[in-house]
Write a structure and sequence with these properties.
Number of domains of chain A: 1
Strand order of the largest sheet of chain A: 2-1-5-3-4
Order of helices and strands of chain A: EHEHEEE
CATH architecture of chain A: Roll
Shape of chain B: elongated
Helix content of chain A: 10-25%
Oligomer: heterodimer
Helix content of chain B: 25-40%
Structural class of chain A: alpha+beta
CATH class of chain B: Alpha Beta
Number of domains of chain B: 1
Largest sheet of chain B: 5 strands, antiparallel
Number of strands of chain B: 9
Largest interface: A-B, 22 and 39 residues
Largest sheet of chain A: 5 strands, mixed
Number of strands of chain A: 5
Number of helices of chain B: 3
Radius of gyration of chain A: 12 Å
Order of helices and strands of chain B: EHEEEHEEEHEE
CATH topology of chain A: Ubiquitin-like (UB roll)
CATH architecture of chain B: Alpha-Beta Complex
Number of helices of chain A: 2
Radius of gyration of chain B: 16 Å
Distance between the termini of chain B: 21 Å
CATH topology of chain B: Aldehyde Oxidoreductase, domain 3
CATH superfamily of chain A: Beta-grasp domain
CATH class of chain A: Alpha Beta
Strand content of chain B: 35-45%
CATH superfamily of chain B: Molybdopterin biosynthesis MoaE subunit
């Protein structure tokens, strides 16, 4: 099945793209997707920061099981405000 | 009103939005780009957002503030793209019957923005650039 992955900020720069579609096994968790992406995009590894996970614009835990067409974002440390 | 925008933020627009006949106070917070940070001469802050989620998270903060304090209305607008020295990156406006609630809710909003809203800033300084916050851990969003 396919999921959409969006990259932002430092991860967008490291991946060299802002959005991809990724084929994953049914039952994959968001953490497993991240492992796979690190193999696809070598510059994403090693992860030298704490990442949060968001699926369909809501924060989820690492063991969240992905569904077809989910929109997944790996959230690097946020720094809005001023 | 909970938005991210590429345009300069209109303070009066937010004040008008939160104006309420039952309010005795309106508190505003304006976050601006400072010309220095940790010894670096800052040229600009370049903000990036996951806009759909950022607006949802800002609205969630507004809901949370309404549960905690007796406020009338709240507006938060965060700018994205380059924000130069003295320009505003974020403006918060809160109205309440009494000033204490407005001050506290406004303070809560800006502190929470820095923890949970998917907006990032790259500091452009003389001699380089750096994504702020990527060198340290971040707390989990409060929920």
């Amino acid at each position: 099945m396919k999921v959409k992955v969006k990259f932002f900020a430092i991860l967008r720069e490291r991946a060299g793209t802002g959005e991809i579609t990724k084929e994953i096994r049914k039952g994959s968790t968001v953490a497993e997707l991240w492992e796979a992406l690190q193999r696809d995009y070598s510059k994403l590894a090693p992860v030298d920061m704490r990442l949060l996970y968001a699926v369909n614009q809501v924060y989820v835990k690492a063991d969240y099981v992905l569904k077809e067409r989910d929109e997944v974002v790996f959230v690097p440390p946020v720094s809005g405000g001023s | 009103m909970f938005r991210v925008t590429r345009e300069a933020i209109d303070l009066q627009g937010l004040v008008d939005f939160v104006t309420d006949p039952e309010a005795g106070a309106i508190v505003t917070f304006i976050g601006t780009t400072r010309n220095n940070n940790e010894g670096r001469k800052v040229i600009a802050l370049d903000y990036e957002a996951y806009p759909e989620m950022a607006e949802k998270e800002l609205a969630r903060l507004g809901e949370e503030a309404k549960k905690r304090w007796d406020i009338r209305r709240m507006a938060i607008v965060h700018r994205i793209g380059p924000v130069r020295i003295t320009e505003s990156s974020v403006i918060i406006a809160v109205s309440a019957a009494h000033r204490a609630d407005a001050f506290e809710a406004c303070r809560f909003a800006i502190e929470e923005i820095k923890k949970s809203v998917p907006i990032w800033k790259k500091e452009l300084f003389e001699g380089g650039e750096v994504w702020i916050g990527t060198q340290s851990g971040q707390p989990l969003p409060g929920r």
